[in-house]
Amino acid sequence: MTHFFRRVLVFGLAVLVMLPGFAVSGAQTPKTLRVVLGATGTAVEWDVARAMDVTSVTFITMMYPSLVPRNELTAEPQHGMATAWTISEDFRTYTFTIKQGVPWVVYDFTTGQVAPVTDAAGHVRYVTAHDFVYGTLRTMDPATRADYGYMAAQWIAGGDAFYKGEGRVEDVQIAALDDYTLQITAPEPAGFLLQVYGMWVFTAQPQWAIERYGAAWTLPGNYPSYGSFVLKSYAPGARVVVVKNPYWPGTESHPIPEIDVIEARMLAEAVALVAFETGEVDVIETVSSSALDRLRVERPDELYFGPSDCTYYYGFNVEKPPVDNVHLRRALSLAIDREKLVATVTKGGQQPAGFFTLPTFAASPTQAEYPDLGIHSDPQQAQAELALYFAETGTTTDTMPPLTLTHNINESHTLVAQSVQRMWRETLGIEVKIESQEWRTYLDLLATDAPQIWRLGWCADYPDPNSFLGSVFHSKFGSNNTNWRNEEFDALIDKAARLLDTQQRRDLYARAEHILTWEDAAIAPIYFYATQSLISDQVTFTPSILGIQRYDKWHVQ
């Protein structure tokens, strides 16, 4: 992909109108935060509707504040673009008051400044409830092919049929009651709906820009946004620069930033570490586990360990031999010594995972509470399951189909894969080949033809088990690359979503976890993430527990 800039085209006029009461930064040296976000080749999806990975959502969170964002320190809902909201007595209808006076802006390469967008009459375009309706409907429109379209569709009455191409857009119950009042009606009540409606899939999108530029609307100079930062430049897989939006008035969740520029680079972990130690970057979001022991000694004050809301797991494509056999899938999962892996390989505070769902949510089941459910590391039982596989298929270690484990390019993923590869060899006598691919290519592969065994992480979109079990593995709404489905599992997830009693929900999710990780063994959960970052002592930061850092709220001396 070739990167190029496009001169800003003002919609209808060749003049950009400056709003009163705001001033563009002067000639003083801008405060710049330099961050490493992923390995070389890591792509950013700028289309709000199509974004699905942590890197992309990190930027979109800053540039497209949602209705009700979660506080990065507490995970509690905050006022974002919604200044107020009401919830009906049946917990189905949510009415949001949209913040007024927030202009759409772009970066103008002619002036080198951020400027508001105007319409054909020369009037500044402000974000309205209509933009939220358009953005949400576009995300769930099957023509958009958005990976998270199911999320918007699942929680708006009439949305599921529209998303499947079986219903009319007019029947989707999201509406602008006036320019600054948005109403969403859910198909059924759920205790986590406010958190759901705070996701980026329900945020505003610029209809006029998308219709004018088509796929090119996301290019720097064409790309309107309205939050605390604006896209200035993007070199795919290498570098992103976003600059402070001087027209952003600030909200509870997105205060006016003190940083002027955020420069994000994509570098291999070894190169990133050298860049940090030579002062070229201020932050490495994820530090290679191989460097942690040395950094604990040499840079203890700049090495940060913190919580995360993500699960690291291996998925099986249950349609591809030999992992189309449940006994082999169980054997591979049982043979992973999770305790040893986090103690000797990752070494960054991760916790072994026998369930897929994080244990920290109110309705989360834990293996301490349900010790007989889920997957456990057990070499003897692994060998017994392997024997059952051989008996069913009539194969042996020498005649079974070859196995490949695939992951995206990353030093830490390689170390984990090599460790698991040794465990499978030593416990089961099975040789497994390891392959790696660049991130965007890897995601495309998972979506079109998932390998036999593949690696992913999943982070909470909102703090509830449904964000894990329902969002990923429900057959109707999931981001599921395993090709696995189970009717009992789906029914459990559907029932748990409708209940408000926490313990009842927890019991249902525990049973669903057991089906996913043991009975059908569609995945092998490995560990619950922890954050290991390098942060310069010149940076004041607010560490996020959400899996997405809020760099727009950090400070640089």
Mean pLDDT: 92
- Integer count of domains: 2
Strand arrangement, major sheet: 8-9-10-1-11-19-12
Number of helices: 16
| Radius of gyration, CA atoms, in whole angstroms | 24 Å
Structure description:
The protein is α+β, with helices and mostly antiparallel strands and about 550 residues long. It has two domains: about 30-265 and about 535-555, Periplasmic binding protein-like II (D-Maltodextrin-Binding Protein, domain 2, 3-Layer(aba) Sandwich), CATH 3.40.190; about 310-530, Dipeptide-binding Protein, domain 3. About 30% of the residues lie in helices and about 20% in strands. The strands form five sheets. Strands 8-9-10-1-11-19-12 form a seven-stranded mixed β-sheet, with helices on one face. Strands 14-18-13-17-15-16 form a six-stranded mixed β-sheet. Helix 9 runs antiparallel to helix 11 (about 380-395) and helix 15 runs antiparallel to helix 16 (about 500-520). The longest helix is centred in the last third of the chain and has 18 residues, at about 410-430. It is globular. The two termini are about 35 Å apart. Residues about 1-25 have low confidence and may be disordered.
